[in-house]
Structures are given as structure tokens and as C-alpha cells.
Design goal:
Layout: E1 28-41, E2 44-51, E3 54-60, H1 66-72, E4 80-89, E5 104-115, H2 132-137, H3 139-142, H4 146-168, E6 172-173, E7 190-193, E8 201-204, H5 209-217, E9 222-230, E10 242-251, H6 255-274, E11 284-286, H7 287-294, E12 308-309, H8 311-315, H9 320-327, E13 331-337, H10 345-357, E14 364-369, E15 372-374, H11 383-392, E16 400-406, H12 408-425, E17 435-439, E18 444-446, E19 453-455, H13 470-473, E20 482-487, E21 490-497, H14 502-511, H15 516-530, E22 537-543, H16 544-552, H17 582-588
Parallel strand pairs: 3-5, 6-9, 11-17
Antiparallel strand pairs: 1-2, 1-4, 2-3, 4-5, 7-8, 9-10, 10-22, 12-13, 13-16, 14-15, 14-16, 17-20, 18-19, 20-21, 21-22
Helix pairs in contact: 4-6, 4-16, 10-12, 14-15
Length: 593
């Protein structure tokens, strides 16, 4: 059997392997794909032929075509073949209801081998649990598996649905440069040396932030782009050095207009791609409320376990640890793990250890039984204090109360993490979609590496108008015109109303310890543009990879990206990054130390 064809000639595919049904009975068809499985049943050979469209069973019967049957004896898994035959109904009892093509088969009379395959290092179906290193090393094989083909097909649907929606809203898709000037935007830049200008460097964009603002100045009042972004930062499951976002910017808008559009886009995507109806409208809470109730700024609303202030109960108690924290300006808060008073001490000790891993000095616990509150610390809580605890936590017999006393930031961090840990351990998250908006973030936060501030989002975010005066008096109190979209505890999108006045932008640069000279050197083009009639504008960017992963039911964005990097930013398949030779470096004026 010949193994390769110089030309397919009259062998042109008529159908893919997922479309044949009873409507094609009796038709002559040509299919092409990979041998998924080959089975020899007493002389009759069955081959499951697979392509992106699906799987079709092909029958090689020696009585129908001795030549095709003889050639089929040499076929092995992952050989690439073309088959010609007649669509027939499967015999009674042989129907496969799991396949769209399960009622028919192709009785083959001719077969052409298009290419052979070495034995593959793993089975190419979704029943095998593969290590990620193996999957990424052989990504071109991993991508043949139905799960991965489905994920990338869904990603395509999201591209198409996004473009369709935004086109209907009057947006223009405009591309912005990948080779830009390095600017301080929060993460490390990937630098690209210039051969033409020795000693000078481009940077790959962390986002198109400055360019989309320039497009607003240019009069393109509704811009979008599905764009690649690059950040040289430590990775985890939901991060990649290169990632994709839906970038949106609008002129003559306030927060409400941007949020309304982003919310309608999200509902449209979920409905069109997955048939899911999201609530209308999404609930909205402030950053401060999110921290107070959930201990984090991207709360998961699929379960309760909200943080509750217990300061009154702490003040009414004789518990020295709580009283000292209260006197020093700290907080006492708790979570009611409803219905879990029955937990054995070993599991409670596990929760204490988890809280300590998050930085807690300790975790106090109280069981609420039919006899009242029970714990080694209850003796320090007089009846009035116990009543305050029960009332604040809405506690009843059967509940387990978990309490933390510390500085406000530590309390939020520990109880916020403990809330998520409880939900995971006891599978409390409902099978539902719970979106919400979080807004009014702090504009600035202390810079841990300098005596000053850094931007919480980016340096172009506008402050709330009522907080502008506090920029001079107490910058830490200034709130931003920023908003994040959170779904099931994941930040899906984030944006803000931008600063469109050069004077206010310069004031913010000063607070960020960016001198006038540095501002002009790094952002001079933007500052100059703001002096030439910049309209009020704002926008939002969706984490496209995270959104697709959520719709696909995947935990890691690597499972919805064709060729991702590992969590150490390595491409295992192509062995990237790799060394370059000395002549390339000399051309760039670079010498390695």
C-alpha cells in the first residue's frame, strides 16, 4: 500500500466524520481523517475514523471489497487515511446512541493511506488522565482529543459572538502595535532589542491602555480589539506570559454606560455559546462592602459563610485575646458554618492549621448545641456576650462558629480564605452562575518598595469627583471610578473611567512619584494628546482566556489555549525560551554575562 500521495486528485472529501446521518443512506461519500481505533471481528474490520467534526464507523468487509479489506489490515491507530464507500444503516443492536453518526456506517470499497504514524505516547481520548507535562510536550497530539477540540471550538464561538455583539453596538475593531515603548504599568515588560537602534528596546504591551485612550482622542468613540497582551510575571493556573483580552473603550460615557454594555455582552456570550441565562441586572457592591462581607474583592456568591462583625460581643466578653485586639484598633469577625457543629476535633484542627497558613495567629471555634455554646473559650463569654454572638451570627443549634481577631487586613485575608476552603471541603458551591460588579476601589495603595503610593489599577484611572480634593489631604481615602466583573469568585473583567484632563493626570503622576521629566519621557505622547481636546472616556477589558475556561468548565486557562506555556513560562513542545547564537547577539549589540 502506498503511503503518500503527491496529489489527492479525485479524492476530495465530501463530508466530515461527524455529519453523516440516515439522510445520507445510499450515498457514495469520501471521508478523510485519523484512525481512532481498529477492530478485527472475525474477518470484518471496523475502523473508527476521526476528524474535527467527529467520528464515523467504517466497515471493511472482504466480501464487499477484498482489496480495501486487505489494505485495512495494515492500518494502525493515528494513520491518516481517505476512505470511499456507501453510507449504510447499522445492523440492529449495533447503533451507538452516544454518537451523532451512531445510526450509520460507511461500507468501504476503496481506501488510500495518506500518512503513517509512529506509535503515540498516550491514548488520544478523554478517558486517560494525563500529566500536564506530557500533554504540553506532545501538544499537537493532545489537541486531537475531543475535549481539547471542543474547547478550541468553543473559543472560536466566543470570538464570533463577541465580534457580532460589538459590531451590532457600533464598535470598530482597531489593531494597536505590539512593539511599543516600555512604560510603568504594574508588571514587568517583555523587552525586544532593536537592531536598527542599538541599545534601545521595544516592549511588548501589557495592554493597549495608552493606545485605546489615544483612539478616543482621535474620535473613534467606540473601539474594541480581541488582543494579545504580555506580562513577565510569576504564573499560576489563570496566568500566562501571553494572554488574550477583549479590550473595549468608549467616549462620552460614565460608569453606568460601560457597565451596562459589558453586562449585556456577558449575558449575550453566555446565552449564545452555552445557553445560560444570567440575571438582569447583575448585583453591585462596593469594594469596601466586598471586603467587609467576604474578605476579598472578588467574592463567590454561590454560598453564604459571610464574615460578620463581632466587636460588640468581643467588648462584652472577658476573653483577653479579643479584648486586647479591640483595644489596639483591630477587628474581631466570624463565620457561621451552619450545620457543621458535628465536625470532629481533628477536622477543626485542620481548619486551625489552614488559618495559620494564611497568617492567622489563631482560630477560635465554638459549637452551638442544644445545650448552648460549647468550647474551651466559652467560659470567658458571659451570657450577654454569648447572646450577642448568637444574634450577630444568626446561630442556632447545629452550627459551628469560627472566629478571628487581628488587624483588619489580616482578618479579611484569613476569613476570606477560610470561607473558600470551607466551601471546597464541604462542596457548598451551588451549580449556578453568580455574577456581580464590584466598584469604588481605592485609587491608590501604599508602595511596599518606596515611601509613597502605587496605582491599584493603573495610573490613568480617574478618581471619584467627590474625592478629588482628598488627593492633597489624604490620598489613601480616594476612591477610583473603577469596576470589576466577578463571576463565581473569578475576576472576568475590569475597567475604569479614565483621566481625560492633563492637569489631573499630572497630579496623579506626582502622587505615584513619577517626576515631570519621567512623565514626559514615558507618557509625553499621551499627555500631549490630552491637551488637544480629549473627550471623557472609559472602558473595560475582559480576560478572554478565563471567560472561555469558565464556559468550558475548565479550571486552568491552559486548557483553552492552543499552545500555552507551563507555570514556569516554558514551551515544552518547542523548548522555548531557547538560546540564540553569537552572530544574532552581535547584530543586536548584546553581550551575555
Amino acid at each position: 500500500m502506498s503511503t503518500r500521495l503527491d496529489s489527492l486528485g479525485d479524492w476530495q472529501r465530501t463530508h466530515d466524520c461527524g455529519t453523516l446521518t440516515a439522510e445520507q443512506l445510499g450515498e457514495r461519500v469520501i471521508l478523510m481523517g485519523w484512525v481512532s481505533t481498529r477492530r478485527d471481528h472475525g474477518g470484518v474490520i471496523f475502523v473508527d475514523l476521526r476528524d474535527r467534526g467527529g467520528v464515523t464507523q467504517v466497515v471493511f468487509n472482504p466480501q464487499h471489497s477484498p482489496d480495501a479489506h486487505a489494505r485495512a489490515e495494515a492500518l494502525r491507530n493515528e494513520f491518516v487515511v481517505a476512505v470511499h464507500g456507501i453510507v449504510e444503516r447499522r445492523p440492529a443492536g449495533m447503533v451507538n446512541p452516544r454518537l451523532p453518526t451512531g445510526k450509520v456506517e460507511v461500507n468501504c470499497d476503496r481506501v488510500r493511506l495518506l500518512n503513517e504514524s509512529r506509535p503515540v505516547p498516550f491514548q488520544l481520548d478523554d478517558t486517560v488522565d494525563l500529566g500536564e507535562e506530557t500533554r504540553l510536550r506532545y501538544r499537537y497530539l493532545d489537541l486531537r482529543r475531543p475535549r481539547m477540540q471542543g474547547n478550541l471550538a468553543l473559543r472560536h464561538q466566543c470570538y464570533r459572538a463577541t465580534r457580532g455583539f460589538l459590531d451590532g453596538e457600533g464598535f470598530l475593531e482597531v489593531e494597536t502595535p505590539f512593539l511599543i515603548r516600555s512604560t510603568p504599568e504594574g508588571a514587568r515588560d517583555f523587552l525586544v532589542p532593536s537592531r536598527v537602534h542599538p541599545g534601545r528596546f521595544f516592549a511588548l504591551p501589557q495592554s493597549p491602555q495608552t493606545y485605546k485612550q489615544l483612539l478616543m482622542v482621535s474620535g473613534f468613540d467606540r473601539y474594541y480589539q480581541i488582543v494579545r497582551c504580555f506580562r513577565d510575571e510569576d504564573l499560576r493556573a489563570d496566568r500566562q506570559p501571553e494572554f488574550t483580552q477583549i479590550d473595549i473603550e468608549m467616549s462620552f460615557v460614565d460608569e453606568e454606560r460601560v457597565i451596562d454594555l459589558a453586562e449585556r455582552l456577558t449575558r449575550s456570550l453566555f446565552s449564545e455559546v452555552s445557553g445560560v441565562s444570567l440575571p438582569d441586572p447583575f448585583p453591585r457592591i462596593s469594594y469596601q462592602e466586598a471586603m467587609d462581607r467576604f474578605g476579598c474583592d472578588r467574592p463567590d456568591l454561590r454560598f453564604g459563610l459571610e464574615l460578620v462583625d463581632l466587636m460588640e460581643a468581643a467588648r462584652a466578653s472577658d476573653f483577653g485575646i479579643f479584648r486586647s485586639v479591640v483595644d489596639s484598633g483591630g477587628q474581631v469577625k466570624g463565620i457561621n458554618a451552619k450545620g457543621y457543629s458535628h465536625l470532629p476535633r481533628s477536622q477543626i484542627d485542620g481548619l486551625i492549621a489552614f488559618a495559620q497558613e494564611q497568617g492567622a495567629k489563631g482560630l477560635s471555634w465554638i459549637r452551638h448545641t442544644d445545650r448552648g455554646l460549647e468550647s474551651s473559650i466559652v467560659k470567658y463569654f458571659p451570657r450577654a456576650s454569648q447572646d450577642l454572638l448568637i444574634e450577630a451570627l444568626a446561630s442556632e443549634p447545629g452550627d459551628l462558629l469560627l472566629l478571628v481577631a487581628d488587624a483588619p487586613g489580616a482578618v479579611a485575608r484569613v476569613l476570606g480564605a477560610l470561607r473558600l476552603e470551607l466551601a471546597e471541603r464541604f462542596e457548598l458551591a451551588a451549580d449556578s452562575w453568580c455574577p456581580l460588579w464590584v466598584d469604588r476601589f481605592p485609587l491608590l495603595e501604599p508602595d511596599p518598595d518606596a515611601d509613597g503610593y502605587q496605582a491599584v489599577h493603573h495610573p490613568f484611572t480617574a478618581p471619584l469627583p467627590e474625592d478629588v480634593e482628598a488627593l492633597d489631604e489624604d490620598p489613601a481615602l480616594v476612591r477610583a471610578r473603577a469596576y470589576d466583573l466577578v463571576i463565581n469568585g473569578d475576576e472576568i473583567a475590569g475597567g475604569s473611567i479614565r483621566i481625560h484632563e492633563s492637569g489631573l493626570q499630572n497630579r496623579l503622576f506626582q502622587l505615584l512619584s513619577i517626576s515631570d521629566q519621567e512623565a514626559r519621557e514615558k507618557f509625553g505622547f499621551l499627555l500631549e494628546a490630552l491637551e488637544h481636546g480629549a473627550p471623557p472616556h472609559g472602558g473595560i477589558a475582559f480576560g478572554f482566556d478565563r471567560l472561555v475556561a469558565m464556559l468550558a468548565g475548565e479550571d486552568s486557562i491552559r486548557d483553552v489555549i492552543a499552545f500555552p506555556k507551563t507555570n514556569k513560562a516554558v514551551g515544552l513542545m518547542e523548548d522555548a525560551p531557547g538560546p540564540v547564537d553569537a552572530p544574532q547577539l552581535r547584530e543586536l549589540g548584546i553581550r551575555l554575562r
